Amino acid sequence: MSAPHVIIIGAGSTGSATAHDLALRGLRVTIIERGEIASGTTGRNHCLLHSGARYCVTDQESAKECITENMILRRIMPDLLELNDGLFVAINEADLAFKESFLQGCAACGIPAREIPIKHVFDIEPFLNPKALAAVQVPDGVFEPFRFCLAFLATARQHGAVVRRYTEVTDLLCSGNSVTGVKVRDYRTNRVETLRADLVVNAAGPWAEDIAAMAGVKVPVQPTAGVMVTLDYRLNNMVLNRLNKPSDGDIVVPQRATSTIGTTSWKVEDPDLIEIPPEHVAKMITQGEQLLPVVSKIPTRAKMAVARPLINKGDADGRTVSRTFECFDHRYDGVEGFVTISGGKTTSSRAMAERVSDLVCNKLGNTAPCRTRDVPLVSYRFFFQ
Amino acid sequence: MARLDVTLQVFRYKPGEQTRYDTFDVQVADTAFVIDALDEAWALYDHSLTFRHACHHSSCGSCALRINGVEKLPCITRVSDVWDGKHPIRLDPLRNFPIVSDLVVDVKGFFQRMSASQMRITRDAEPVLPVSVDTPAPGVQPEAVELPDNLTRFNRFENCIECGICMSACPTMAIDDRFFGPAGLAAIYRACQQTDDPAEKAHLLALADGDHGVWRCHSVFECVEACPQAVDPAGKIMALRQELLARRFKKAERK
Amino acid sequence: MEELKYSKISQAVRRFDLRRRKLGSWAYALNHITGVGLVVYLYLHLAVLSLLLRGPGAWNTFVSLARSPFVLVLDVILFAGALIHGLNGLRVALTSFSIGIRIQKALFSMVMVVTVIALAVVAFKVFGG
């Protein structure tokens, strides 16, 4: 008897990592993506490999998860990361007052953190605001979300997973109270197809609600957009964060020969049609100037905005497994063979995948353990070969 | 915020059908990029319009196509730079790649070459220095910068984002479909710099020296003009030629 | 899955489509054209010289033809072609080994400027003087 077939809807970081996990556990996997890999939320990511320090005071569960996953990703995809650490910088007295709780928070969450004498910091970061008062070094890193997903998928493919791009799920197949597969349109040929599955995983990010509605269930996902501005010059060697509680435009992520300032937050109705509010863009520049005053003189290379799938915290109950991301087994909604995984951040996508894969395997009677902590990913280039 | 009413003329192809151009009228902000206009056309009018995109900030390289006949990344090309108010913005897929559907090309052969080059996608970075922002000059060689403890070296992603623009612009790619291509040869050059192993260097140089390697380049330099990431593929091809010649002379001397 | 691939001939022709191409492509196309032109001229030249084997009569007929304005114009074009091919060839030879690669466009401009000036001088001498 052949292994159970799981269909994953959405090839962003969550779907890609889940395809990898399930394929490694011996399941037959088909992952369906309506566009290019990571063309949804994941692609327009800030590219920050979180150390977790950002959340070490306000959300310690999230912080611990970040540092754990940060270390795992350094092991399994070492060649896909810029590893220059990050700095949390105090620009004013209010920031400086936050330093103590920040350092305590990092210690409590197991995040290596070290204060660096500020005059040394100006040597490392010559464009840093000369008013900076203090800086703490943490193991932030930088990744590239497209290749991040490709690496997971290339490895999954080597274990038999099938990846269908430019193929959109138009309906879920239901039989009685079970989801039994998907109906798709393959846009390469405009042909409609039916694919049967033993279980369907909804990893469609901000479009998760649209997919869930096809099975007559709801998921509390609120598409929440954010904008980022990429400057045409690399102004910082290390990731620069504002030493304070999380707020808009308080991170500048260097990547290759650019620096990207982000981000903001506003609710959107339709994640497919997002208008970038110019005042948000202006705010990125003014906030960025706090850390790097020269920002306003650098030409903008790109601007991006996309909806994150934030979980509406209004309905926490026994189903929710974690406050950072949520895994919904829809049997509690009366529908078998269908689960949704949403929320989270790319840094923790492997953990999200582990959680939903545990659930999937539980439901399908597969007892293989998760191996994704240790199995190194193959070269992302193999995705296309 | 001003808005622009823009017309896109997009290449369409599905297997078994004739190629054609579809026209889409979209409204975008005057500060929008071409990828935003294309995305809007897809969202509003036609989900069957297939195109590649992911990062929207020239890091992934997936969105490369031709805008008004010229290879560009639509994510960093402003609509206002290619819209004259009248003539539709024409979008075509890259040249010299097989076309899968609409603007999507098959990059399997391209990535086979990039794999064969063995270039690592990350490299040592030049530390950021306080040069004048009027003329930013990345890659300036620093005097030793004092760094505390473990912060002695930075790394970053290679310039090349594997977008394939150079492969499309190169006329040799048009006539020799086994040509390793500007991206592939530039990657071999970088890979040679990344390794200390003489056997690996020799293997890579042999690849560059092959029938479809550096000697096929006709010095047209379209790759250099088109590259959005300042990789300078032709410069690297010529540098490989110098290296290959130098090795030939050394071998001849030793005989 | 049927992918669309343009035929070899179609691709070969398209690489000479110079619309929206940069100077390097113009240099490339010109070198091809002048190269073919010079080869054709070489054969013509050999054919013409073989008239010598047919004695003074045949040769004299040719020489009077060679003085006609039409042929003189062709000669001037030939001169331009040889100059472009030779000078650009030098540019390619240099840049092929990284010499002058940063100024390759300026080098091509120089090739064309030198050609135009030399052409003007030669045309003057042939038709003016």
Describe this entry's structure for a reader.
- The complex is a heterotrimer of chains A (385), B (255) and C (129).
- Chain A is α+β, with helices and mostly antiparallel strands.
- Chain A has helices at 13-24, 60-76, 93-109, 118-124, 145-158, 208-213, 278-291, 349-364; strands at residues 5-9, 28-32, 48-49, 86-90, 114-116, 134-138, 141-142, 162-164, 167-175, 178-186, 191-196, 199-202, 221-231, 239-242, 251-255, 258-262, 266-267, 300-311, 325-329, 338-343.
- Chain A folds into two domains: 5-42 and 146-220 and 314-384, FAD/NAD(P)-binding domain (3-Layer(bba) Sandwich), CATH 3.50.50.60; 48-143 and 222-310, D-Amino Acid Oxidase, Chain A, domain 2, CATH 3.30.9.
- In chain A, strand 14 (239-242) and strand 15 form a beta hairpin.
- The longest helix of chain A is centred in the first third of the chain and has 17 residues, at 60-76.
- The radius of gyration of chain A is 21 Å and the shape is elongated.
- Chain B has 255 residues and is α+β, with helices and mostly antiparallel strands.
- Chain B has helices at 34-44, 79-82, 108-117, 165-169, 171-175, 181-194, 198-208, 222-226, 233-254, and strands at 3-12, 20-29, 65-67, 70-72, 89-92, 99-101, 104-105, 122-124, 155-157.
- Chain B has a five-stranded mixed β-sheet. A two-stranded antiparallel ribbon of chain B has the order 6-7.
- The N and C termini of chain B lie far apart (72 Å).
- Chain C has 129 residues and is an all-alpha fold.
- In chain C, helix 2 (23-49) packs across helix 4 and helix 4 runs antiparallel to helix 5.
- Chain B binds chain C through residues 13, 15-16, 19, 68-70, 95-96, 98-100, 106, 171, 174-175, 217-222, 224-225, 234-235, 238-239, 241-242, 245, and chain C through 1-5, 8, 11-12, 14-16, 19-22, 24-25, 27-28, 92, 95-98, 101, 104-105.
Task: Count all strands of chain A and give the number.
Answer: 20
The CATH architecture classification of the largest domain in chain A is 2-Layer Sandwich
Number of helices of chain A: 8
Low-pLDDT segments, ≥5 res of chain B: 132-148
Estimated share of beta-strand residues of chain B: 15-25%
What is the topology, as strand order, of the major beta sheet of chain B?
Answer: 2-1-5-3-4
The assigned structural class of chain B equals alpha+beta
What is the CA-CA span between the terminal residues of chain B?
Answer: 72 Å
- In the CATH hierarchy, the third-tier topology of the largest domain in chain B is known as Fumarate Reductase Iron-sulfur Protein, Chain B, domain 2
Proportion of helical residues of chain A: 25-40%
Q: Tell me the CATH topology of the largest domain in chain A.
A: D-Amino Acid Oxidase, Chain A, domain 2
CATH architecture heading of the largest domain in chain B: Orthogonal Bundle
CATH superfamily of the largest domain in chain B: Alpha-helical ferredoxin
Q: What is the tally of beta strands of chain B?
A: 9
Strand and helix order of chain A: EHEEHEHEHEEHEEEEEHEEEEEHEEEH
Helix/sheet category of chain A:
alpha+beta
